Amino acid sequence: MSGRTSRALAFVVQRYGADVPGGSETLARSVAERLGEEFDITVFTSCARDYVTWRNELPAGRSLEAGVEVLRYPVQEERDLASFNRFSDTLYGRPHTVEDEIEWLRRQGPYAPELVLALQERKDDFRAIVFFTYLYYPTCVGLKAASERSILVPTAHDEPPLALSIYREVFRLPQAFAFLTVPEAELVRSRFDMGERPWEVAGMGVDLPAAPDVEGFRQRHGLRSQPYLLYAGRIDAGKGCVEMIEHYQSYREGVTGPLPLLLIGQLNMPEPQVKGVRYLGTLPEDEKRAAVSGASVVVCPSPYESLSIVMLEAMAAGVPALVNGRSEVLRDHCVRSNGGLYYESADEFAAVISLLQGDRSLREALTEAGQRYVRENYKWEAVMEKYRRLIRAVSA
What we know:
Helix 8 crosses helix 10 and helix 11 crosses helix 14 (360-377). The protein starts with 7 loop residues before the first strand and ends with a helix. 42% of the residues lie in helices and 16% in strands. By secondary structure, it is α/β, with parallel strands linked by helices. The chain folds into 2 domains: 8-205 and 379-395, Rossmann fold; 214-377, Rossmann fold (3-Layer(aba) Sandwich). The protein has helices at 23-35, 81-89, 98-108, 113-122, 137-145, 166-172, 182-191, 214-220, 241-254, 285-294, 309-316, 328-337, 346-358, 360-377, 380-395, and strands spanning 8-12, 40-46, 61-65, 68-73, 128-132, 150-153, 176-179, 199-201, 229-232, 261-264, 277-279, 297-300, 321-324, 340-343.
């Protein structure tokens, strides 16, 4: 093995690629490409593109992507989500053994032991190793193999797996932490002993939109000048989409001239057959930006979030966000920014949409406050400097 160099960094993340959706995956790629301007980055990841099955869709081996070296390793077992969910139900809130949790982690995936072995073999090559997302096998087992100069970006939220005993070691091993928000940092610090280890609320940079083609988006999807609600992201029950559709049905029944609800992203549940709901598929990034910029309201229904990139993108574009108030992170964004509103029931969901449609001065105030919040708190250069500080700390 070669000696550790001042320019070599490793990133470990469950999936990676420009066409791989997901918040933590997008964060990892964005940070890797920007740090790649001053460091030699090697990404250890799986061959999966799809987080539901972890099916090997991308070729194993080495590739160079936007100046970043990417090493992909095969997933040994595809995941049957229904079977995995049934197994999970036997763990959460019930007596079980550590062995049960280890079996749960393997089933959770992506189970890629070759990735961990390669990381362990090369760990001394790197000035620092940055792990993204506490939840999955590459981080959970990878930290045991290479914790000495590790930084964990947990992307944690208050969900059942966080209480499993195996994660006590996951949060004990890193030498430093990068959090996305203040509520995430407070959650982790309340659950785990961080001691004197360095940490930063690094967040994520948000690029302000450069004149997206909103009119072209409207024409391509037959919207003309009609205002619309938008959900952008993974479309599944875990993201609060089932409840959002139910709330939307109630909203339609109670108003005259209800706005349509557009859904864009990967569909991981049956396509909703509800009047007013349109699924547009997975769109290219520039088309997604246009969809966000043209929306009247961007809805963020997930009760579990560690940041919400789409909420920040909406604010940057001058579009009010309507978020699930049960998510502490999303609610905190609204309170800190005064750039969004939140709901905790179907009645509140409907009332806020009607309020935003009817009160122009409120929309303008939310727009101005949201754009200021993103501008002041989510600049990429400030984010990168926090990562640099953590890299210096763990490699000292």
